[in-house]
Every structure is written in structure tokens, then in C-alpha cells.
Design brief:
By secondary structure, the chain is of the alpha/beta class. The chain has 18 helices and 13 strands. It folds into two domains: 245 residues, Glycogen Phosphorylase B (Rossmann fold, 3-Layer(aba) Sandwich), CATH 3.40.50; 176 residues, Rossmann fold (3-Layer(aba) Sandwich), CATH 3.40.50. α6 packs parallel to α9, α6 packs across α15 and α11 packs across α16. The protein binds uridine-5'-diphosphate.
Length: 448
């Protein structure tokens, strides 16, 4: 009888936020294509759609979040709740999985699961951490305690534009802070994540080391564990959806009707929220720019409203087809579409790397966390976008859209992003840094 060699198994512990689910599922597909079996451990809260990944095994754990906890607008609170309520369920689940699986290779956990190290140590299984930010933001986060001690994080308006001596390129206002009622919860999170990272068997980044060589050196100096930059993940695997919201595919047929590189795409990601006045200023700015636009207005994006009911009557009709608003888009396809010429973004790292990979220049409107760091790199270091530094007003939106899409300055920005796209393409091919790092990572996992 033919015997099949059993595949090594990786347990992926996914964190239930959109910007964390997308990269970890892409990573799962990368490992699956390299001959690993994948078991996904996930919470009931924001449970991923397993039917999109029939080649993975799914195991859910009860997270114990009450309805009010699950709908808490303070994401940092949810994060802490999950980290305390999932200790026992995750421990029980992992113990059972390991006892049933002789080929268990390792656990890959999202860095936001900062409680897991005690359990993986106890069960004697190697733990590798996926950090879903880039190296520049990672370095900034790793200096969090120093920045806090020096008082940089309690921002004073007058110092907002001062440089940060410890972090070249960044200004005080770019430092990663957390949108939370209680700043101490941000500190707890940061301390927990750092401890968990430093005690891990390795850290994986959806990043490209050629784009951030200085930060790689700095990270290697600071962190005593192996680091693997193997991004861009999404360019290594065929698209498959880990979207929590339904993507409105009519965007694509609407884009088909637009001229090449004429459309400005707007999305502020899955968590950031804006005031109603900001929403209306963006709406009028887009309209006044006369540029075609595709705008993702996620339910919950605008504080205090359901969706777009507060747009002035006739606003959409008067655009005569020049603008389209959807609740959620197939973002990767939108960015790859020939009609998309610019991206007004909140600068989450997934959105940023997805934009770089399609050479779509950006307009940055960051809110919190790593978004500010990314925005500074986009506008001042890589110079592949414009930065909306001031209060959101229609005239700023209009001017930045016109500048990016129609001016000579916009053309220069567009030229600068092309070599970055080429670097992203080359690094995952034979001889490229991410290609080499993935091979090293696989050999490392198989050596456990
Ligand atoms: N995304 C999407 N459709 C949208 C908006 C976003 O599929 O309409 C995806 C996007 O491609 C990215 C993720 O959601 O992979 C957002 O992650 P990011 O790190 O940019 O921001 P976050 O949501 O974590 O703030």
C-alpha cells in the first residue's frame, strides 16, 4: 500500500481584525503552497469565512465577548478583553490539537495575541509571531517606553512639528499613539506585545527589507530573535478573500468605464472613523476636484450616522456618474485596475503595501497607531504621496486630488513609486531578499 509522507502542520492563531486577517491568511496560503498543512485557530468574534479556504482546517474558540464588549468602539479595549478571555479557550484548544497531531511544526500567532507565550512554552511548541506593521513603524513602537518617559507622547501643539531625536524622519505628531480612552491601556498593550515578541522563536513581517534598510539594522540590533521580512505576501499567492464585509464588485465594472489613471480611490480602512463634518468636507472636496472618484464609506466610518444619509440631497445624482460610493470594495483589484490613478488612504500598512505594489501614489490621511509613521514615510522619505497635515477642509482635498492626479508634481510622485513597485516584484523572485528570507524561514521551521 502506498504511504504518504505526512505534512508538517502549522497552527495559525488569527487576530479578529480585518487588517490582521488578510495578511495571516495570505501567509497561510504561502506556507500551504510550500507543502505545509494549515490549521486556523480563530475566535467566534469576527469569525473568518472558512469556505474561502477549503484547503485549511478551521478550529474556533469561544472568546467570551459579550455583545457590548464586541461592539465597543475602543478597539484597544476589545484587544485587552480578547487577550484575557481567550487564555483558557486557546490553551485547551492548543493542548488538544498538539496531542492529536504528531507533525505539529509550530504555532504562528498574530503579535496582538500577547498572552500566548506562557502557553506555547508550557506545551513545548515553538511560537513565531506575525507582526503586521512595517519595520519603520516597528522600530517606533519598540521605543514606545522611551518616548513615553520623555513625554513625547503627550503631544503639545507647539511641539507637533519638532523632530524626534530617537527616530530620524519622524516628527512628534507622527509618533504611534492609540485611539483609546485610557492611555495606560495603550502602554499595557505595548509592553505585552514587546515581551511576547522578545520571547518568541522568530518574527515574520509583511515587509520588504530593501525598502527599509536602516530600520532593518536597527531592528536586528534591538531584537534577539530571528527576523524574516517576506513581503509582499499578497503578491506571492492567488487572491482569496478573508474579507469580513461583502465586497461590492460593481466597483470593477464602474472602473472599466473610466479613463486610465483618472480615478481617485478613497478608503480609510476597517477601523478609522471620522466626524460628520470631515465626511462632508471630503465629499465636497472630491466633487469640486472634478476628478472621478470611488469612495469606500464603511458603515460605522462616520461617527453618529448609519451611512451616507447626511450627504446633501441630490449630491450623488449631480455627479452624473463621476463618483461612486460603496460600503466595501475589492481593494486589491481596485488598486490594480488601470483606471485607478491615486489613493486617498489612512495609511494602514496593508493598504500602503498594496498601493506600492500597483504603483498607485497616495494622499495620506492617517489617524492613529502606525498610520502616522507610514504617512511620513510615504510623503517625506519615499516621496510617493502627499500628506494632509492640516484640518480636513474641502479646499485641501480638492487641491491635493488635483495635484496628485493632474499636475507635474503628481507626475513626479508617480514616477518615484514605479521603482518601489519593481523592488516589490523583484524581492519575491529567485535572488530577491524576501525569496531568500522565506526559504530561510521554512528551513528554520523544519529544523524545530
Ligand atoms: N480593504 C478591502 N476593502 C475596502 C477597504 C479595505 O478589502 O473597501 C482591505 C485592504 O485591502 C486591506 C485591509 O482591508 O488589506 C485594511 O488593512 P489596513 O492595514 O490597510 O488598515 P486597517 O483596516 O487595519 O486600519
Amino acid at each position: 500500500m502506498e504511504t504518504r509522507e505526512a505534512k508538517p502542520v502549522i497552527f495559525l492563531f488569527t487576530f479578529p481584525l480585518q487588517g490582521h486577517l488578510n495578511p495571516i491568511f495570505q501567509l497561510g496560503n504561502i506556507f500551504f503552497n510550500k507543502g505545509f498543512s494549515i490549521t486556523v485557530i480563530h475566535t467566534n468574534f469576527n469569525s473568518p469565512n472558512s469556505s474561502n479556504f477549503p484547503h485549511f482546517t478551521f478550529v474556533s474558540i469561544p472568546d467570551g465577548l459579550s455583545e457590548s464588549e464586541a461592539t465597543n468602539p475602543d478597539v484597544i479595549d476589545i484587544l485587552h478583553d480578547l487577550n484575557s478571555k481567550c487564555v483558557a479557550p486557546f490553551g485547551n484548544c492548543l493542548k488538544k490539537l498538539i496531542s492529536q497531531e504528531p507533525n505539529a511544526a509550530c504555532v504562528i500567532v498574530d503579535a496582538l495575541w500577547y498572552f500566548t507565550h506562557d502557553l506555547t512554552d508550557k506545551f513545548g511548541i515553538p511560537r513565531i509571531v506575525l507582526r503586521t506593521v512595517n519595520l519603520s513603524a516597528f522600530v517606533a513602537f519598540s521605543k514606545f517606553h522611551v518616548l513615553r518617559e520623555k513625554g513625547y507622547l503627550s503631544l503639545q501643539e507647539s511641539k507637533a512639528d519638532s523632530p524626534v531625536p530617537e527616530l530620524p524622519y519622524l516628527r512628534m505628531k507622527d509618533l504611534p499613539w492609540f485611539q483609546t480612552e485610557d492611555p495606560r491601556t495603550g502602554d499595557t498593550l505595548q509592553r505585552g506585545v514587546m515581551k511576547s515578541l522578545k520571547s518568541s522563536s522568530g518574527i515574520i513581517f509583511n515587509a520588504i527589507e530593501d525598502l527599509e534598510p536602516d530600520q532593518l539594522d536597527e531592528t536586528l540590533r534591538e531584537f534577539p530573535v530571528p527576523l524574516f521580512c517576506i513581503g509582499p505576501f499578497h503578491k506571492r499567492v492567488s487572491p482569496s478573500s478573508s474579507s469580513l464585509l461583502t465586497q461590492d464588485m460593481t466597483c470593477l465594472s464602474w472602473l472599466d468605464k473610466q479613463a486610465s489613471k483618472s480615478v481617485i480611490y478613497i478608503s480609510l480602512g476597517s477601523i478609522a472613523a471620522i466626524d460628520e463634518s470631515e465626511f462632508l468636507e471630503i465629499a465636497w472636496g472630491l466633487r469640486n476636484s472634478n476628478q472621478p472618484f470611488l469612495w469606500v464609506v464603511r458603515p460605522g466610518l462616520i461617527h453618529g450616522t448609519e451611512w451616507i444619509e447626511n450627504l446633501p440631497k441630490g449630491f450623488i445624482e449631480n455627479l452624473e456618474g463621476r463618483g461612486k460610493i460603496v460600503k466595501w470594495a475589492p481593494q486589491m483589484e481596485v488598486l490594480a485596475h488601470r483606471a485607478t490613478g491615486g489613493f486617498l488612504t489612512h495609511c494602514g500598512w496593508n493598504s500602503t503595501i498594496e498601493s506600492i505594489c500597483e504603483a498607485v501614489p497616495m494622499i495620506c490621511k492617517p489617524s492613529f497607531g502606525d498610520q502616522r509613521v507610514n504617512a511620513r514615510y510615504i510623503s517625506d522619505v519615499w516621496r510617493i504621496g502627499l500628506h494632509l497635515e492640516n484640518k480636513i477642509e474641502r479646499v485641501n482635498i480638492e487641491n491635493s486630488v488635483r495635484t496628485l492626479m493632474t499636475s507635474l508634481e503628481g507626475e513626479e510622485i508617480r514616477k518615484r513609486i514605479l521603482p518601489m513597485k519593481e523592488t516589490a516584484e523583484k524581492c519575491i523572485k529567485l535572488g530577491g531578499s524576501s525569496h531568500r528570507n522565506l526559504e530561510n524561514l521554512i528551513a528554520y521551521i523544519l529544523s524545530f
